[in-house]
């Protein structure tokens, strides 16, 4: 089983929407999918539940951190749903090591039962995010194309608790950053300028696709995505032409991310090096 965590300390950037699309996409590819929602807001749980395609575990997600050996249904698409207790875990620091160890033990126990585990996280850099990142194989960071988000890339890499560099060097050397995925991209001059800035500063951690250099995976802003998320629909099965058009645009990113996860092949071979004076050292070691 390969475990992919959706993480970005910025709220509302599309983590849950990307997690949901990926969950359905991995199913479309025939994978056995375990979906874990570590955000008490439940924006990964709700659309999956509404889709009626998942077996919903009786144990809530907080139990994966607080209990040893939680039991989940025997099915090929299982959701361990968000619950309120998730938000209280940070306030129990003496148990944080246990929380991380329980989640690690659970994921290990699921290794042969699923092909892919997707973990959606809350935007706070708390024990839930740490526990997920220390046990995961991959992390993917959706970001929006605004100045605040670009400034936030530094924290994503270097945050003292949950920065990808910190986690890979101290706690989980196998964690691989698939990359930054610009989402809700709009074709306006403002976003185009920010995209250029992103490429200039951070191209080693964008997600390349296709044979041409400079082609990086992204997702456009399309109302059909929000609608699918709200209604629990599968984007490519929606009747509207707009939804199918949106899927055609989004599929490119899904293909390259799924390939990185399933093949275990990094999309990036380049370490994160300083570009234009940006202060970013290698992610690993
Ligand atoms: N590509 C897209 N096009 C249009 N709307 C989108 C797109 N991606 C996400 N959205 C919508 O934007 C809103 C925020 O997305 P989402 O909930 O996935 O963000 P998030 O990063 O998980 O937020 P949080 O940090 O609160 O967990 C949702 O209403 C979602 O449906
Ligand atoms: Mg979310």
TrEMBL record:
SUPFAM superfamilies: P-loop containing nucleoside triphosphate hydrolases. CDD domains: ParAB_family. Pfam families: AAA_31. Residues 1-175 form the AAA domain. This is Chromosome partitioning protein ParA. It comes from Hydrogenophaga pseudoflava.
